[in-house]
């Protein structure tokens, strides 16, 4: 680590910092215009590192990469801390921020679930250097400008009309220049617009306006990977940017068609939609997916998908902290005490336990290759941006229900899970690792349901018998000692009875 030492002695440095009010005010006034720093989250790309000269960027480093204390003597350390104090600033908290990097605790469990594979969107996941998709993005911008008769500068002003507002949207925004940020976001927003335009033409390579994208997206694997990248937590641009492009006069792709393409994209990636193979139910699914919420009013694409997966009929649930989690026994254990499972069409809002019929209703989940990545990014978004814990609660419930292949077979027979991964082992591993490092906070809805299930589970005679058997008869020496103690107690009681009887008979 290279440290710039001040020229003046240490004592004079402290005296200058503490005794010059004008200098102190100037140094504390400027930082309020700088972006905030999150000491809890890990940047998604190296470009986000070293955002501040304070010690936060040292604390976030792995232990083996942190500077060793022995590399400084006491005078050097005093000068270093004095410089840190002199240049420290207070992070600004803004409630409007909706685009975050993935939290470090989740990223360390499965890093590849949060990393783009085909395309990077936005400034959090990208460095300012050439990338494989730059040619496609540049061509999209050129075609878009040609259709609308715009120059690049004018297009950039349409997309990002207030660059300073970006710091109120992105958390840990890299310290790029204003023009670089505007161009980067313009490239990415126009690319998403043209990709949706391409979707509206049914992937037709002969289309006059958007057939050129077929050169870059010419097979189903590339399309599915690209769609997956558009729903990563840090790979987002504000929806308002896309809406500004849609509001430009365009007979070929009006805003109504853009809205339909967005809804189709969200429906296609929603793991709770069960009619992917049935085109007759597609339209009805799309209509019921988000309800009264317009996709163009969401914060970004991932927020659209989250809204579709966690639609609450009675508004947002309130988060309850420091309460027991919603862990349940496994599906096999619940089946043994008479509880059955039933698949429901919908999202997490359909989860319900019916006490009289002993039925636990769960949404049907269709599991494809991209489902794990989608769920992980939705959970990360909920943990960073939402107050409710609906999706985390669902993940904890499924993780507790699934432990062995027998549990999977029970849920599959009930229609709760539809596995397209090719093997049960992959699905077991997915759920066994899904809730690692996820907070145990649960909402009141989940706790009431969990309490009702556990009350029936603990009161069932089979459970009480199993607990009694495991406590007293699972270990031979324990039940033998129990029998011996009972025999000794009985013999002692008989001896006492005979002694009392002999006393009265002799008297």
TrEMBL record:
Transmembrane segments: 477-504
Swiss-Prot/TrEMBL keywords: Membrane, Transmembrane, Transmembrane helix
One Pfam family hit: DUF247
Source domain of life: Eukaryota
The protein, known as: Uncharacterized protein
UniProt lineage: Eukaryota, Viridiplantae, Streptophyta, Embryophyta, Tracheophyta
């Amino acid at each position: 680590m290279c440290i710039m030492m001040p020229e003046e002695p240490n004592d004079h440095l402290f005296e200058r910092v503490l005794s010059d009010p004008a200098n102190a005010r100037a140094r504390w006034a400027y930082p309020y215009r700088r972006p905030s720093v999150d000491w809890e989250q890990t940047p998604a790309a190296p470009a986000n590192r070293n955002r501040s000269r304070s010690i936060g960027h040292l604390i976030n480093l792995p232990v083996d990469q942190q500077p060793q204390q022995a590399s400084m003597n006491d005078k050097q350390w005093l000068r270093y801390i004095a410089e840190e104090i002199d240049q420290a600033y207070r992070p600004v908290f803004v409630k409007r921020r909706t685009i975050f990097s993935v939290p470090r605790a989740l990223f360390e469990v499965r890093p590849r679930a949060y990393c783009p594979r085909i395309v990077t969107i936005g400034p959090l996941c990208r460095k300012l250097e050439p990338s494989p998709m730059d040619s496609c993005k540049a061509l999209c911008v050129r075609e878009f400008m040609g259709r609308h008769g715009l120059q690049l500068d004018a297009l950039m002003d349409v997309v990002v009309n207030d660059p300073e507002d970006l710091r109120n949207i992105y958390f840990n925004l890299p310290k790029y220049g204003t023009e670089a940020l505007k161009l980067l976001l313009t490239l990415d927003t126009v690319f998403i617009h043209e990709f949706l335009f391409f979707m509206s033409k049914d992937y037709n390579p002969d289309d006059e306006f958007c057939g050129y994208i077929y050169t870059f997206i010419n097979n189903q694997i590339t399309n599915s990977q690209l769609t997956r990248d558009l729903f990563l937590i840090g790979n987002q641009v504000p929806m308002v940017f896309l809406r500004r492009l849609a509001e430009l006069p365009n007979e070929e792709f009006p805003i109504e068609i853009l809205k339909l393409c967005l809804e189709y994209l969200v429906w296609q990636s929603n793991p709770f939609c069960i009619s992917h193979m049935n085109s007759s139910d597609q339209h009805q699914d799309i209509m019921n997916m988000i309800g009264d919420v317009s996709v163009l009013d969401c914060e970004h694409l991932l927020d659209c998908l989250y809204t579709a997966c966690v639609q609450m009929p009675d508004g947002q649930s309130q988060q309850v902290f420091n309460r027991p989690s919603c862990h349940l026994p496994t599906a096999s254990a619940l089946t043994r005490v008479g509880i059955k499972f039933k698949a429901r069409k919908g999202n997490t809002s359909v989860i319900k336990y019916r006490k009289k019929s002993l039925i636990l209703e769960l949404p049907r989940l269709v599991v494809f290759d991209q489902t794990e990545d989608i769920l992980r990014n939705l959970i990360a978004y909920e943990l960073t941006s939402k107050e409710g814990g609906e999706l985390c609660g669902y993940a904890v419930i499924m993780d507790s229900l699934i432990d062995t292949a027998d549990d999977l077979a029970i849920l599959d027979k009930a229609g709760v899970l539809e596995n397209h991964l090719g093997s049960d082992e992959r699905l077991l591993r997915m759920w066994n690792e899904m809730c690692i490092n996820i907070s145990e906070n649960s909402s009141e809805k989940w706790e009431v349901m969990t309490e009702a299930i556990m009350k029936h589970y603990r009161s069932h005679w089979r459970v009480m018998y199993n607990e009694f058997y495991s406590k007293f008869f699972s270990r031979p020496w324990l039940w033998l000692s129990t029998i011996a103690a009972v025999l000794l107690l009985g013999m002692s009681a008989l001896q006492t009875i005979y002694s009392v009887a002999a006393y009265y008979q002799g008297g």
